[in-house]
Task: structure prediction
Amino acid sequence: MTYKSKESRLLLILGTFFVANAILAEFIGVKIFSVESSLGLKKFDIDLFGVPDLSFNMSAGVLTWPLVFIMTDIINEYFGLKQVRFLSILTSVLIVFAFLVIGWAISLAPADFWINQNMEGQPLNMDLAFKAIFGQGMWIIVGSITAFLIGQIADVMIFHKIKVLTGERGLWLRATGSTLVSQFIDSFVVIFIAFYLNPQYNWTWQMVAAIGLVNYTYKFLVALGMTPILYVVHALIDQFLGKDLSHKMLKEAAKN
Result:
């Protein structure tokens, strides 16, 4: 099979970028960073539902998840709901495969000379560091994949329904609206499974609600800020495809 047509090349580019960013989010997501400190701001230390000292401490996975949802909306826009659904399932399978390979790599006996290293003047056990970074708990993995699938299904369905009502107009409405709903689901599902259902933690409903709301607030603001980028990507694709082909693909995608 060759990718000579513009449609096939476009799908290949969008699809691989979609998968790559989703898998990246899973593995960089183990790092929790302070949004306020990263921006040079004072921590908010807010109190929600009786949970004190809450700040915008986010998983580093939020760096690439907005790009995943942009790709979701763009693929839905030009190729339809079925294509996005297929890519979402494929990505979930690849994420599971990646975790299985990582688990296998963790189980391998480390070379003696590699274990004890020096990083920026500090002694470091490389084998423990490798396990700590890549060895995410099963509950977190299950929560993350479940949240991804549910969020994606919600995103594509809402996007498609709004597009049926608005036609080719209102890109900002269907893209932002679908992303805001899917991000709301994602924010709470992953926390609920990974920390509330996990017997290793004693999280309460209040903690799930408070931390989920803080996470969603951040994602809400990012989703709004990404809307202009969506229009830029849309314009570049229209230029690449040409007016006639672009219009044809948009019309056919709305039917699928």
Residues 6-253 form one domain. The radius of gyration is 21 Å.
